[in-house]
Amino acid sequence: QAIDDDCNQTGQLLAAMLDWPQGTFASRVQLEAGHVLVEREVDGGLETLRLRLPAVLTADLRLNEPRYATLPNIMKAKKKPLEVIPAAELGVPAGPPRLKVLQVQEPPPRAGGEKVESVESLVGKLRHAGRI
Amino acid sequence: PRTAMAMAWRAAPRAAARLLLGRRGIASCIDPSTGLTEDQKEFQKVALDFAAKEMAPYMAEWDEKEIFPVETMRKAAQLGFGGIYVKPDVGGSGLSRLDTSIIFEALATGCTSTTAYMSIHNMCVWMIDTFGNEEQRHRFCPSLCSMEKFASYCLTEPGSGSDAASLLTSAQRKGDTYVLNGSKAFISGGGDTDVYVVMCRTGGPGPKGISCLVLEKGMPGLSFGKKEKKVGWNSQPTRAVIFEDCVVPVGNRLGAEGQGFSIAMQGLNGGRINIASCSLGAAHASVLLAQEHLTVRKQFGEPLANNQYLQFRLAEMATRLVAARLMVRNAARALQEGREDAAVLCSMAKLFATDECFGICNQALQMHGGYGYLKDYAVQQFVRDIRVHQILEG
């Protein structure tokens, strides 16, 4: 599962920052000399792109079958060291944030509705409110 | 997804996999992961994944065509399922009896018959690992843990089942060999497996005259009977194993002369937990199948699930499943802790769980009505496969 809260942004943002081509929702990837052929899952079906390397790809679940974890590896996983590297050591600036909060507000409290007697009356009211 | 689950069992492999996995997210009163450690939940997850993807879609075919699924079992061995409670220095996974029970219970939801064979294989490797000397452990265990080779356990004879200590297969000492004569009956994997752990008589009558020898297919004088036709367990071949002046080097004896019966009895404790665990998996799968069917099938204008009688029966099945599971896991803990009451608890757990789980599977079949009797539906195979669990392993 993606770590960006399923916002579908990380790969695209990275490609823009690096100015590299992007092939997202990849379900099939084939390397060629200096290029990569990416088959993408799109709403209308499949789209195939040929991208100049280097490129950024994001994976769709149809790209491959994850391997099973082996029993010994499961037991070793707990003992693996977790190395913590401060961002400064990598030369990555921690701030300033590139997002500005404009406004935070609660959704309006739920107002009461109105009951009507007939379908004609309902249609009339919706028209009057500019909804249809 | 629940409607599709019943269909998945009898239709497309991929669908079966995704749906059996999907149900794990549902909080359920029969959830087998409650009370387990994080590691145990991970083992269980791998085993359930493997069962759903690699076994469940094929269990009907393996049963119908009597296929011994060597490649699938080798895939399982690659994940560490070939020597689950065997020490790591010879290729095993070094897990506990409780871990093992959890794993077999999970695998059995995919194919009970194949999992039962795997548990027998595991027991044989454990015997060599535990009672063999260093040379024997390193000679036999690695290729068994990887399932490059398969093992069979030979204790039962035509004349000695429950009365195992009265076995007649003789092993006469001649120089630095034993010469075996006799036959074993009902041997799981017999004829298709490579390594045979054989209990035979080297001394006088009774348990103290029994020793344990490891034989290999291809040894002169070792032959096999016809493949038996069985009601279930059809994904593993069952044959008689015949010894006619079969010469075995003394270096193939596990432990001391006369230690065989003790080895057999200790093996049986774990074997009983394993078989009981397989029954638990079958019962769990059957309860889910029944639950699914009750929501889909309509009679008298309503889904069967609205029927209070059936709701009560399903609740009873769930209760009995959890009770059986607790018995088995309690026995597994006692065994791995080396407690005095371990043997008795293993026997009780095996007795209780295999009987209860058969009842659960049978009841699940009944809830399917006439459809439960068709081989298109998986529930009948669980019933047939676990019926024998009430008989073997004492």
UniProtKB/TrEMBL annotation, chain A:
Gene3D superfamilies per UniProt: HUPs
Keyword DNA-binding: no
Keyword annotations from UniProtKB, A to Z: Electron transport, Transport
Residues in Electron transfer flavoprotein alpha/beta-subunit N-terminal domain copies: 8-89
GO BP terms, alphabetized: amino acid catabolic process; fatty acid beta-oxidation using acyl-CoA dehydrogenase
Signal peptide: none
UniProt-listed InterPro entries: ET-Flavoprotein_bsu_CS (IPR000049), ETF_a/b_N (IPR014730), ETF_b (IPR012255), Rossmann-like_a/b/a_fold (IPR014729)
Protein's cellular compartments: Mitochondrion matrix
Domain of life: Eukaryota
One Pfam family recorded for the sequence: ETF
One Gene Ontology MF term: electron transfer activity
Main subcellular location: mitochondrion
GO CC field: mitochondrial matrix
Assembly with partners or alone: Heterodimer composed of ETFA and ETFB. Identified in a complex that contains ETFA, ETFB and ETFRF1. Interacts with ACADM.
Function: Heterodimeric electron transfer flavoprotein that accepts electrons from several mitochondrial dehydrogenases, including acyl-CoA dehydrogenases, glutaryl-CoA and sarcosine dehydrogenase. It transfers the electrons to the main mitochondrial respiratory chain via ETF-ubiquinone oxidoreductase. Required for normal mitochondrial fatty acid oxidation and normal amino acid metabolism. ETFB binds an AMP molecule that probably has a purely structural role.
Family: Belongs to the ETF beta-subunit/FixA family.
Name of this chain's protein: Electron transfer flavoprotein subunit beta
Organism of this sequence: Molothrus ater (Brown-headed cowbird)
Lineage: Eukaryota, Metazoa, Chordata, Craniata, Vertebrata
From TrEMBL, chain B:
Active site: residue positions: E393 (proton acceptor)
Record-annotated Acyl-CoA dehydrogenase/oxidase C-terminal domain positions: 258-394
UniProt-recorded name of the protein: Isobutyryl-CoA dehydrogenase, mitochondrial
Start and end residues of each Acyl-CoA oxidase/dehydrogenase middle domain: 153-246
EC number: 1.3.8.5
PROSITE patterns xref list: ACYL_COA_DH_1
GO CC entries: mitochondrion
Name of the gene encoding the protein in the UniProt record: Acad8
Catalyzed chemical reaction(s): propanoyl-CoA + oxidized [electron-transfer flavoprotein] + H(+) = acryloyl-CoA + reduced [electron-transfer flavoprotein]; 2-methylpropanoyl-CoA + oxidized [electron-transfer flavoprotein] + H(+) = 2-methylpropenoyl-CoA + reduced [electron-transfer flavoprotein]; (2S)-2-methylbutanoyl-CoA + oxidized [electron-transfer flavoprotein] + H(+) = (2E)-2-methylbut-2-enoyl-CoA + reduced [electron-transfer flavoprotein]
UniProt-listed Pfam families: Acyl-CoA_dh_1, Acyl-CoA_dh_M, Acyl-CoA_dh_N
GO biological process: branched-chain amino acid catabolic process; lipid metabolic process
